[in-house]
Structure formats: structure tokens, C-alpha cells
Fold each of these.
Amino acid sequence: MANATPVMEAIDETLAGKRPVFEVVYEWATTVDHKKIGLMYIFLALIFLIVAGIEAILMRIQLAVPNNHFISPQVFNQLFTMHGTTMVFFMGMPILFGFGNYLVPLMIGARDMAFPRLNAFSFWISAFGGLLLYFSYFGASGLYGAGSAPDVGWFAYAPLTAKVFSPGHSTDYWTLSLLLSGIGTIGTALNIVTTTICMRCRGMTMMRLPLLVWLFLITSCMVFIAIGPLTAAQIMLTLDRYIGAHFFDTQAGGSAVLWMHYFWIFGHPEVYILVLPAFAFVNEIVPVFSRKAIFGYPAMVAATVAIGFISLSVWAHHMFTVGLGAAGNTFFVFATMVISVPTGIKIFNWLATIWGGKIHFATPMIFCVGFLFQFLIAGLTGIMLSAAPFDWQLSASYFVVAHFHYVLVGAIVFALFAAFYYWYPKVTGRMMSETLGKWHFWLFLIGFHLTFDFMHVPGLLGMPRRIYTYEAGRGWEMWNLIVGIGAIFQVVGTVCFIFNLIRSCFRGEIAGHDPWDAWTLEWATPSPPPSYNFAIEPTVHSRRPLWDLKHPEDPDSDYE
Amino acid sequence: MMNTGTIPISTQTEPAWVLPSRGTVGMVCLIVAEAAIFIIFFVSYIFYLGKSLTGPTPAQVLELPIFGTVCLLSSSITVHWAVSALRKNNVRNCALGLASTVLLGALFMVSTAQEWYHLIYDEGLTIRTNLFGTTYYALVGLHASHVIIGLVMLSIALVATLSGRMKELHTERLEVLSLYWHFVDAIWVVVFLIVYVIGR
Ligand code: HEM
Ligand SMILES: [Cu+2]
């Protein structure tokens, strides 16, 4: 059983009746091992991915043809609120932190996170936040009012969330669940920063950190500055709703625009918190499959730091239509456009890494190529929207929806899939099927482009977002139908992926320690890594420690 | 498929490999996150200054909390004493330092309680009254809740010291706790400036 996964081992032993289910559940529920916690994060996120995906499909069915009455307007509002909230907070962040939890200690040669118990606490409180959000389907107006999920949008603009406009408790579930998961996120970020700074193995100087670790470090620093405001705003909203404070109560002089500021001070950095880990995966995968060291390591680090800083000063580009005044608009237009400089540096460096490399198009690599292409387009539509006059035309239209799904799905989810195929052998000791992987890639790629390329068009033609149906004859029908068909392709692709995940666990080819011939420290451990990670604490001499080991005649450390 | 073992430890003598302490780095992270929360409350307070639709206004009802401020700020010094005493393995002085810190912090809380009592029962200002009430109680309350958390942890440290479980080797932990306490004090300085000096 040398190559069995901890998951499989558990399944096997339970099936064979060797260990009672209870014992296994107890072991996972009380674990403080960073690898198990990472896996639990990822598992949780996949569940929420399925749930939020179903919500998306329901919305697309409703919009596929004009004058549809498949679902009611109220349910539609709940669907887009739950979909957005779930995807951002209970799919995106957990899955990224899951990978962070699993990989960061391994990559820096540490045996665990700096605070293992805090780590477990953070996971469980985030998970509880997610459950609380969905419990609103039962609890918000009592069991008989089942279905009163939050319906105020994932941005929950004031005064829609005031007690008068949102009676019952649906909004409270939204607020409290984000408050709790926010605490969990801050805890995990704190853990990652501390681990990176204080637990590096001998010789792992900051400039020798794998880029993935650098990016998680910076993401985590952004979490402190971005989630804090969200938490603060949620506390204020809770005070408003429970004990009659007036922060966002426009009747008593409170300001709705202040909520927008607070939300986007969090919201904009948040999108970078989601995208930087995606960059992190690409940073590790592209060099390995091009058989070259990453091009411009220091520039990559500098660009990431720059993105971190700039992204904190652009939030009001979500508020051009509020009327910020000429000076405000100009500032936020330029600040937003400046972001494209470090982002461009990154794209350039990835291309330069691929350039002239011996490219090996395994599944992780093709997902990265999809990422590169789609992220470029997403950046371009972002720059278009950051021109205030253009935004006045297109804000709150389907063009915006297309833009951000290009980043969130076209870039982040593609990078995530790449990461799954790349690190799966490390986690389980078995390879994922390449054939199924290619099917998954092509189905998903076609579906993605059918959906989101064509979604720009109804946006340009004036179709607003968050409408639950529309009349025929406006020129939107055909586009919406295509968008809906694309969604089906994506679903089929994802089913291939999930099937591949489960099947490979039992049938996958045995992977060995280092199937990709990579050079970061996690590949120096057996697959799956034992609970203490490293039998002997490693010492490193360069950025590519395994390369040094495999090529004693020409180690990197001679050049650094 | 290559099978590589674990990385061998090098035999040559390496320069010492020292990394910052986990407690301090973790606490600094926590402080940054907390500071972000406080900033949002500060911004709200400043933003709503003078925007209340009804009275009372800060100028009418607030008095400078000099006594509480002096208590809280001097508690930063006493906690520092406690840490330096422990570093020199002087457990008795450490206990003394911690005890005075707890006492001073408690006095601060008493003065806040008195202030709130006065505002609520004499002036009729609650969190519902107007925007001033909303922002005032939220901000001062947020700070006070941090003081209370600090007091609880300091009291635990005090009990540990008195029962002889706090030794020189725990200095770092106490230092991390003192960092938190200094942060709470520093925030009070800002609260004081914004609420009682500028706000009036
Ligand atoms: C070059 C970089 C980018 C630029 C210039 C940019 C610009 C913009 C602008 C101006 C808007 C506001 C549109 C409106 O509401 O009228 C927007 C919306 C949005 N962007 Fe981006 N963006 C960029 C990258 C990203 C990334 C990396 C992500 C996600 C990871 C992202 C996610 C979003 C989301 C979620 C929204 C819509 C929020 C909402 O209204 O619900 N953007 N973007
Ligand atoms: Cu933005």
C-alpha cells in the first residue's frame, strides 16, 4: 500500500471493515495536519462548486428564451446572490487556500504550518460560514418559509439590505456567514505569512522561494487589508439590522454610497486575492512543461508586489456610474489602467518562459495555455471598462458579466484545473487520465468561449444584468441561447473532470515521487507525502533544489 | 519517471540559519488586519461628523476622558516592565507589572462604563438616536471589546505568573501579548484624537 492515498486508505479500510466509519471521520475532523486540512478545503470547495454551478445553470435555463416563466423573479434574485457569494467566498477562496495549505509548507521544506491548530480552526469556521449561508434556505423565515435565501446580490447594496426593504433574516444569514468565513480567511492568511517567513528550511532565502510561495505570501498580505474592511462593514450592517444603528440607513442620514466604497475597498482587492494564486499555479507549471527556469524571477516578484499595492487604490472603478465627480473619476481611471503594466510584465514573462522551450503539452500545460490567452482578453475588456465614459455605457450590463467571468473562469478556473492535474499525483500517488483530461479541456474550452465570448454581445446591445426575463424582438434571444448552450458544454466538461478525479484515485497509473521531472521541494517527498513531510529537514542552495540533485554536474547553485 | 530521495543534508558548515519568531510575525499580521477594521470605523466616524439629522451633538455631550486615557496609556509602560522583568527571570516583578496593567486597564473600562451610563441615562444618547450615537458607540465599543479581550488574556498571564507557571522561557509569549496591548493603546490615542479632540 506504499502508494495509496490517505483518502483511499481510509476508504479501503472502512470498506474492509477494519476501521469503523466513525473513527475515520473523527480522525479527519480533529486533524491539524496541513495536508489534510488542505484537502478538506478543496473538497468543501468542490461541493460548493457543484452547488453554485447548478444555480448558474438554473439562471441560464431561465434566460435561454425570452418571456420565460421557469422561475420567479424572487427565486432569480436569490439564485444570482447565492451563486456569486458561493463562488467567491466558498468556492474560490477555500480552493485556493486549500492548495496554499497543502503546498506552501512542502515547498519551503517545513513540516507543518506555523500554527496548526489555528489552521484547523480557520477551516472549520469557514466551512461553518458556508453551511450557515445555505441554512438560510430553511431558517430565514422558519421552516415554512423555506426558500428565503439572501436576494440582495453578492454586493448587497444599501439600502436594499435595510430592515424595511429586506425583512426577515435572509440578509442576516448572508452577513453572518461572510463575517465568519472572513475570520477564517484572515486566520489562514496569517498562518501562511507566518509559515513562509518563519518556517523556511535552511538556505531557503526569500529570493529562493518558489514563486508560488511568493504569490501566496502577497495574497495573504492583501487578505489582511481587504477582508478587514469587509468584516468591519458586516459588523456595521449587523448593528444596523439588529439594534437599530444607522450606518447605511438612508432615512436617518446614513449613506448608501459609503457601503459601496466599503464593499469595493474589499471587493476589488478580493478579485486579485483570487487571481494571484491562479498566477502562482501558472508560475510553477509553465516552466516545468517548457523545461526552462522561469524568465525574470525578480521581475515577477516585483510585479506581484506592485499589483498588490495598486489594486488597493482602484476600487472606485466599480462606482463610475455613482457620480464621483471629475477628479475622482480621473484618478480611478488612471489608477486602474496602471494595473495593466505589472500584469503585462507577467504575461510577457510567461511567454518568454515558453519561448524556445521544449514544450510538453500535457493536460496541465494546455490548461495554462488557455489561461494565458483568456487572461489577456479579460485584461483588455477590463481596461475598456476602466475608461469612465465607456463604463457609463456598459456598467451593469452583460458586458461586465462577460468581463469578470473571463477572469474568474477563463483565468482562475483554468489555472485551477491545471493545478489539479499537476499536483494530483503528489497528493494521491496516482496520475489523472490524460485522455479524459484532454476531453475535459476541449469541452470546457468550447463551452467557455460559447458562453462568455457571446455574452459580450447582448451587453453591447444593452441587455442589463440581473434581469430575470426579457421581451422577444430586442435582438438578445439568439445570443442568450448560445450562451446557454455553452453552459451545457462546460457542465459536461466538469463532469469529465470530476469523474477523472474519482476514477484516477483507484485506477490511475502509479506516479512515483516526481512524475513531471520538476524541481521544487514538494517533489522530493514520496507521493503522498508522509504526515511529517520530510524525514530529514532539507537544505537548499538554489531556486531549483531538485535540479541540483538530479544534475550534480551542472547545478543551479553554481550560478546564483 | 525519476525517483529521487529526500534532499541530503549538506556536510559543509553553513552560516547560522535564524528566522524571525512565529509569535511576533503572527501578532503583527493580526494587528495589520485589526488596524484595517479600525480604519473603516474611523472613516465612518469622520464621514458622519456633523451629518446627524437630530441632536445631541458631540460638542454638547462629550467630555474629555482624561482619567481613563492616563490609566490606559500608563498600562503600556507597566506591561513593558512585566516583560523586561520576566526576561531577567524576576517573576515577582513580572507579576507586579501584570497586576498593575490589569488594574489600570480595568480602571479604563470603569471610566468608559461611567461615560456610557452618563450618555445613555442623562443625555439620552443611544446607538439609535442619531448618526453620532451610531458611530460613537460602534467605534468606542469596538475598542472597548479589544480592551476586554486583552484584559482577559493578561489576567490569565497574571494567574500563570502567580502560580509559578510563567518562567523566563515564556518571555516571548508574554512579549507577543504585550504587542497586542500596545496596539490597543495606540488605537486609543487615535480614538481620543478623532472622537474627543477633532470631533468636538
Ligand atoms: C487588468 C485588470 C482589470 C481591469 C482594468 C478591470 C476593470 C474592471 C472594471 C472597470 C470593472 C467595473 C465594471 C462595472 O461594474 O461597470 C470591473 C468589474 C469586475 N471585475 Fe475587473 N478588471 C481587471 C481585472 C479583474 C480580475 C483579475 C478579476 C477577477 C479575478 C476581475 C473581476 C471583476 C468583477 C468580479 C467585476 C464585477 C463586479 C460586480 O459588479 O459584481 N477583474 N473590472
Ligand atoms: Cu475592480
Amino acid sequence: MQNVKVITGTSAAAEAAKLADVDVIAAYPITPQTTSVEKLAEFVANGELNAEYIKVESEHSAISACVGASATGARTFTATSSQGLALMHEILFAAAGMRMPIVMMNANRALSAPINIWNDQQDSISQRDTGWIQLYAENNQETLDLIIQAFKIAENENVLLPVMVNLDGFILTHTVEPVEIPEKEKVLNFVGQYEPKHAYLRPEKPMTQGALGDPEWYMETRHDVQKAQDVALNVIKDVHDKFAEKFGRAYGNGLIETYNIENAETVLITMGSLCGTIKDVIDELKAEGKEYGLLKIISYRPLPTEEIKEALKGAKNVAILDKDISLGLDKGALFTDIAPFLKDKKTVNYIVGLGGRDIRKANIKEIIEHTENEAKDTETKWIGLKE
Amino acid sequence: MARQFPREELFAPGHRGCAGCGAAIVARLTLKAAGKNTIVANATGCLEVMTTPYPETAWRVPWMHVAFENAAAVASGIEAAVKSLKRKRGLYEGEKVNVIAFGGDGGTADIGFQALSGAMERGHDMVYIMYDNEAYMNTGVQRSGSTPYMASTTTSPAGSVIRGENRPKKNMPMIMAAHGIPYVATASISYPEDFMNKVKKACEIDGPAFIQILQPCTTGWGYPAAKTVELGRLAVKAGIWPLYEIENGEYRVTYKPSKRISIEEYLKTQKRYRHLTEEDVEEMQKLINHKCQEMGI
């Protein structure tokens, strides 16, 4: 029996954490994440979810408590956004370095100043080098599906890294969509029980975690995280395939998804909810006999560079759309990460949607037009900017 | 009396603490009192650095360190996980598990204050031990909110115009007591029985407990390494470090010196006070007399 609920992205995230039967949740409210932790509190209050819910006094303590809980051997979940994620920054490194398979939902939102609660992806992009796996959802169903997969990826013995599942603030967090909620038994069977062999705090078998790593040891631990990120590329694909088989929903190969890319000379690359708009534009233009493609990045870290290169083999022009900006370089993160692999193509960077600025179909058409005609290789253009 | 102390050493010898380090005494006595059914969360600081240079560890109980300001938050997570795993999966069967957090004065009264306040207010069943050496010793003796009035540190140096630290020490036990937690106490490494009894009580009590223990620091205070225990005792005898507990709101002095010694006897033993003039000492004595009267010592 199919159970479809018409819910927001944050509710979908909360449902996923419930389905994975998390043991500990530590969270602090922040717009536009709040509705997700409210939902989880409600689940716990109603006995629908048997978990400890720690009502922490800040995001710094939320992630710190999650590290403590995960180190004890508990399946741990948190959610945050923007300033909250930035406040967690220091401990994000610790969570990855200590190999804590925490799963976090991040509602993508712009960073101050000026204060702005609306969507862009600068918050998670700014956490790029913390060692966390970063996945981006296009819609609410994908949010739920990615969070379920995230536990299985994070807890994989060859990965053991925290996973951040990102969804665009308001665009997904506050928009209702039909979401199919799988059966709990089926999900539990899929994710399995978390039985850590590397991190537990049990008096009968004492373990020291978070020791001092001097120059003799530190570099190796960083390299180990890199190796785990490499391994994660295959694990993400594998978990995705198994998920697709069991639940009947697939997203490309789990790392990237391509849309009408086969016959297109011009391909757009981006991640998150914007992919939905682009798919619509591609369909419209296809009806006019024009072929354009989309390469959607689901896994930003690890970044599947081989898959991206392979997918873009036939493309001549590549438009890379970033909802973030590296100030002082005038480039977005996707562009700086991907363009070096595409030297034989015209690559153009578009800075879009910062602080919740609307990105309409007309903007996408403008980007396509510009890429094909006027744009110079490696150019950056800010879309919708008032000059 | 000595026979009452368990022989088992859960804090192993061979750590990298300085000769005469009081923090090692704090850890050793705490674990003797708490026993092996204990999980420790440790803030960044001397105790963490000197006990766990990878691949060595001085801890024979489960132990973890994450960062400087979050020991209480990490301990909150540990406590919640123990509860959850106990309930859902029958782990941690048998004796009660003590969750103990250690933080120095900087990691507790300053940067870790918010996390501590949050953990205490939420009522986690944990014991927070603030080992107070009255400055940031790990980074080289900088003042903290717990540095006492007129002590000279590298960031509150005694100069020709300023006489060391110009602010009084933050009153952490009273701030913790104001959280309405069931147990708050002060202690000294020089009164081990008193301290261990307090640790035991704190572990047995259901809910959060806070113990602030004065821990003389040979390098930071400037005295010979053999004098650590003696200095701890002088601080109590001079009344600058009263020993008391507040159990369910009830205040009780746990040790009252039969005759208080002058503050000068305590101050003159340490380099951090060597700049004080007679007038300074007199002023300090007046302040202590007033405080002792207030506290019933």
C-alpha cells in the first residue's frame, strides 16, 4: 500500500529521520529549518519516535552533542541552516575527523550581512572542506530518499563520515509536494542497525577518542578522510542502486543525474531545486526542436569528476550555475571545482539566486542564449543583478 | 583514612603533566571516587593535551575530547545516547554509568560557559568538574574569568600603572547554584577525602552536579613543584578558597579551618603575586575577611 503525504521538505526530512529510527536528535531552531525539528519534537512527544531529543542552547552545542552521541554509538540526527551551520563550522571538522556518521539536514539559506533568511547555497558551500559528504536534493521526495540513503552511506564501515543533506530554503522547506513515505520496516531493513566498531564509549571496553595528534600523526588522519571520500563515491552509487531496487525511485547514478544530455551541445550544470526549473525549460525548448541538457550534481562532496567528464563528452558549451560566490575571485564553487576538468569546452559561470533572488524560466533561457552566443570562455555573469 | 581510597588507578601514571601538576591529581582522585563505570568528556586544555598524545592515553575509562568550549555539550550527547541505547537496546546494563566532564577555568567560566549553562539547565545526569588553576595554563598563563584579583598573568601583567588582574574572580559555584541544580560544591586537591566524597555524592545524585576544584599550577603560579599540595592547603586555610557544598539548595561548609592564616602567608609563596605592596595585601585581606564572614568561615 502506497502512503503518500502532501508535505513540506522539512517534514520529509523529519519523516526520514523517524523512519531510520534515530537514537539521538540534538537541534536548535533556525529559519527555515525550524519546522523540521518541530516535527521531530512532535514525533518524540507522541511516542512515534523512540529517541532522546536534546533541546540544546545553540547550534554549536547541537553538533557537539551529536558528536558525543555518535561517539557513544547512537544513530544521530540534526538539522540546521545558514548562520547555524556557520556556528557549527568548527565542530564539523571534528565530526569528520573523528569519523562520526552523523546525518544532518541543512536548509540552504544566505549568510549575513545583510541578514537574509532566503535561499542560496553559500552556507553549505562554505563548509566544503570540513570532510563532510554533501548531497543536494531537487525536491521533497528526494530529500526523504537522500536522508534514508545518507544513514547507510555514513555508517558504511569503509566510509564512516558525516553526511549533510541540503535542500533549498523555502523553495523546498516550505513548499508542499506529494511525498511517498515508505514503510518503516522496509526502511529499517534497508539501513540496518548501527553497530560501530571504531567509536563507542563503553566502560567494559574503554576507548580514547579525540586524542592529540601531533605532526607525526595529523597528516595521515586527513589523508584517511580523503580516502574515505574516495570510497564514498562507490558507496553512494551502490546505496543508490540498492535503494532504487527496493523502493523503486532512482536519481541518475546517485552521484549525478543527467537530463536530455545525449543530443545537447549546450549543457547546464547546477544542483538543488533549480534543476526542476531547468528541466521544465529544457522540455519547452525541446518542443520547439531545440536540444539542451542538464547535469544535476547530487553529490557535491565527494565530487564525481570522472562521471562529470564522461557525461559532458558530447558537450561544447557548459553553463555552470552557482547559488554561491567566492568573493575576490568572482566565481562560484561548482565552476571553480568543475571547469578545470573541461578545458576543451567553453565554460561560463552564472551567479544566480543569491539571498533568494528569483530565478525564472526566462533567466534560464537568457543563460542558454548568452552561453551559446555572447559568452567568452571562463566568463562570470551575475544574473538578475540591478546595476 | 588512606585505606578507604580504592587502590585501583583508573588514571594511569606516565602522562605528560608537569612535575607537581595539580590537574593530574584532580583526574586521579575523581576516577578513584567515581569508579570504572564512568565515561569522561574532556575540554581542550592541559588535562587533555598531557594525557592523550596519540597513540598513548592515560585514561583507563572511556574518554573523549572534541573541542575547547563544548565539553558540557558533548557530555550531554553522551548522556542522552547512554539513555537511548539503554532503553532501546539494553546496553549499559547493571551499575549506573557516570558521565563526567572536565574543563579548565577558561574552558568552563569563559568560552565553555554557554554550553555548561545549557547542559545544567537541561538537567542532564552528569558531573561537571571545573579544574581551576586560575588562568589559561595550556597556552601560557593568560588571564581567564577565573583569574583572581591582582594576580599577574601574561595578559593581565603587573606593570607600573596596573596591578595585575583588575577584576574579581567570577563566582562560578554561585552561578551554577542559581541554575537550581541539585548539587554544587567547591573542593581542593589538598583535601582529597573531602573532594572524593563530593565526587561520589555528585555521581549518585540524579541530575546535574558541578564541582569547582582549586588546582595549584606550578608553572602558572610560580612555585617549586613539590609545593602543590601545600599551596592548595594554604588557600583553604587563608579563606581565599572556602570548601562548601550546596545540596538541593542547602549550603553547608564542609571544612572550616580552626584558625585562619593571613592571606600574606598564601600570597608570598607565588610569583604571580610578588608585585603586591603592603597596601595591596591589606586590601586583599579586607576583601577576604568580608567574604569569609559572609560564607560563615
Amino acid sequence: MPPGITTLAADKIELSAANTGFMLICSALVMLMTPGLAFFYGGMVRVKSTLNMLMMSFISLGIVTILWVLYGFSLAFGADVGSVIGWSSDYVGLSGIGITELWDGYTIPVYVFAVFQLMFAIITPALISGALADRVKFTAWALFVTLWVTVVYFPVAHWVWGSGGWLFEMGVIDFAGGTAVHINAGAAALGVILVIGKRVGFKKDPMRPHSLPLVMLGAGLLWFGWFGFNAGSWLGNDDGVGAVMFLNTQIATAAAMLAWLAYEKIRHGSFTTLGAASGAVAGLVAITPAGGSVSPLGAIAVGAIAGLLCAMAVGLKYKLGYDDSLDVIGVHLVGGVVGSLLVGFFATGGVQSDAKGLFYGGGFDQLGKQAVGVFAVLAYSLVVSALLAFVIDKAMGMRVPEDDEVSGIDQVEHAETAYDFSGAGGGSASRTAAPAPGLTDRAGAAKNKKVDA
Amino acid sequence: MKLITAVVKPHRLDEIKEALQAFGVQGLTVTEASGYGRQRGHTEVYRGAEYTVDLVPKIRIEVLVEDGDAEELIEVVVKAARTGKIGDGKVWSVPVDTAVRVRTGERGPDAL
């Protein structure tokens, strides 16, 4: 998305109720992606760490929202400082913004832009958590999210989308977050797991997904929410670009799902549910940077290539021996890189920007820019994320003790379990905490009318 | 007396029950079980990672019968349990010293 570029020719830009309403709906759709992601990941882990997986996404909704208000929006979208970071004191605490003030030449209020972008900032660290399943202390994770969005996400969002950001000024195309969101999260996942290591039993114990229906539910919510993610990234829909983005999102996702399924049918003999869900997500990731630049046929190509390459990439962890639990690298990093680079081949020129890709007579120019964007974000995120994990690990330990990892992270970190397997009536659970007043004896319970029915 | 034990595919339970009732068997015990035979279990694939699931669900049916009925009963169970596919299971019999009906204290064939 390009702040700073106005799509209206009019001298005086006025608030558009249609665009504002559209963007509020898109923001709500993007918000839904984070719980969707939680279920996508939550179904893929074993029963004993389901809740931890859900919580690692959910906590991002809490932490990042508050940081965004305090300083995140200012760092990402404040006035440019040296092409690498933003800062506007009016944005601190979102305190100096009038409710009718419009965003940077667009027809929507600043508040609407801020809330839309907030949802991106929330889901990006949550994406990382899939690589860390089963083994990271919840407090360490919360601290990591806090530091990571501050020193990685907010600056990178400024590079890519902020007016004056160096990748934005260079002309790197990242419509809705291929580099800022997916490559960023995928590279961070790689950086962290290189520091914290593998799950106990990796490559030895079976680690089958415990609920593929949850995975499908999560993938469905992601797909649905992604329309807001992509179509909303033009910050309005009075010139049709949002509709192009919506259409291309659907097309690429479908193509990627089919490509993944075809690959695994040939390679492994079955069309799997997990393959369908994963292929869909790979397509969504890949079309995210490209959707405003390619034709519908180009979207089929982007999706199919991403579906195929991501399906092949998820096997790498077994060959290379790094434990990316739920394939954040295989799906988000690889998908993001593929989508971002394919812009350099398939950009038609004339939708989001005039830049043309290699196949449309644009030469290597755009491809080169895309490669710079990919490499810069990948390298920065990988190195800084690994450093953060290293520091947190030294300070407080990133991982839970091995015994706790084996018995299940849900119980030690959250004092809960996802499912009750104790049989009819849940009979085996006994109450050890102090009982509520009035429940100390039967007579008391009978007298106390406030007892929960 | 003989104890006939059958470890078979769960979905054959109804057929076996009906066949045993038709034969005149008064009671039986059914337990959920899991295990594998010579062909082992099956393979599942998750994003290309293959998992061999050795222990597959089975049911275990136990019936106490008089010696003279044992052979015929085994045939009845085998016929009802058979699908012709791998994993149909096994049926065997072992001699039983004593059986007691708990309610009345009757012993031997009277307890059946």
C-alpha cells in the first residue's frame, strides 16, 4: 500500500463515507485472521499444547494493540526520519489526531488507517509462533513480541509502506505485506528457532496434528479475513483497484490449493486435508504482494507456482534438521519470497503502479527492486530476531524445562487443558482451590441463593 | 468349557452379535481393543511427513461355551467377521476350568 500517493484528482479531498465504511469492515476482517491463525496452528499441534498455540496468537491482540497506541503507529507511519523509521509526536498515544483528520491524501480518517494497520501489526508476530510450538515460555514469548514489533515490525513497515521509507521510495512493490508481513515473520521464525533449537523428540516421536477440522476452520477464517487484508490495502474502493485485489486473492488461493494437492497426490499418493489448507494459505501469502500488479491469469500463475514451491519447501526441515514446527518458513517465508519476486515477472503495469515485469516488457528493473526488498527484510529480520531470542534466552530462558515440554506446555504455562478426557461427567477432576463462601458445606450451599446454578 | 475370543474389525460387531444370537448364545463380553497383525497398521501423511500408525482399532469379543459347541461357534464367528480384506482379525479358543454365575453360585455349564 502506498501512503503518499493520492488516487483522487480533486484539489480538495473529502472524507468518503463509502471508503471509510469499507475500510472499517476490512479492518474487522483482518482482525479475524489472528484468531483464524490461532485455530490453523492450534489444530496442527498435539493435544497437550493446543491452548498454548492459541494463546501465542491471542496475546498479540493484547500486546500489540497497546504498543501501537503508545508508539507503534508513530514509529511506522510518523514523519520519516532518515528513511528508516518514522516519528510524529502527535501519533504518540494517538493523542494529537482529530477525528475528521484524513490520512495522507486519502479519503479515510487517520484513525481508520491506524486501526487497519494495527491489525497487520498484530498478526505478523502471531505468524512467527507456529515455528515455536510446544516449547517456549509464555512470558518469554510475550517479551519477544513486545521487543520484536518495536525493533523489527514497526521499522520494516516504515521501510515498505511509510512515506519516505527507503524500500517504498525505491519502488519496491509490496501491496499488502509480502515482505513486511510474511517474509518478515518467516525470517524471524528461522532466526528464533536457530537459537532455541528443536522440540524434544523431533524426527523421532510422532507429532501428528491433533485436529484437522480445526486447521480447516482456521484456514477458512484466514481466507475470509484475507479479503480485508488485501482488498483493503488500497485504502478505498472508488477506482476499482480493491476489487482487482479481491479477485486476484481468490484466484491465486484456488490455484495454490490445487497445485499443492496435485503435488502431494503425485508425490505421496493422497489429497490431504492439511495439504488443501496449507496450499490455500501459501496462495494467500504469495498473492499478497502481487495482487495489485498482476492480471487474473497472472494470479493463477503466482498461486500455482507458490503452491508447488511451498509444498516442496515444507520437507526441507527434515532434510536440513531445523525444527520449524508448523512450517512458518516453508509457507510464509517461501510463499512471501515467491510472491514478491513474481511481481518482477508478472506485473502488468497500469493497476497499482506503472511498473512492468519481465514478461510484460519491463526488463529486469522491477525484478531487481523486488529482490532488494526481499533480501533486505529477510536479512534484517533474521539477524535481529535471532539476537532478540538470544538475549531473552540468556536473561530468562526461552524454553520450558524438558519435563514440562514432554508432559505438555498447556498445563505448566496456562494451568488448563484443551479437552476433558476424564470420561462421563468429567469425574476425575477434583477441586483443590478454596471453595467460594457458601460452598464450604452442604447446608451453607443450600442457604446461599447466590450459588451458581 | 471353552472361552472363545475374537479380535475383529469394529464394524463387524453387529453381524457377529446377530450370528451368535441365532446360534443360541445367551451372553457375551465386548471390549474395545487395538493392535496389529502381520500387515501392520497404515500410513498417514501430513505435509509430506509419513507416520506409521501401528495400532489400529479392533474389538474383542469373548464368549463362554460348552466344549461340544466350540468348533461350530468358531465357524459362526469367523463367517460373520470375514470381509476378505487384510486386518479381519483372529478367533481362538482356550479351555476353561470353572465358571460361576455370581448371582446364584451355579457352576460349570449351568453357569453359562
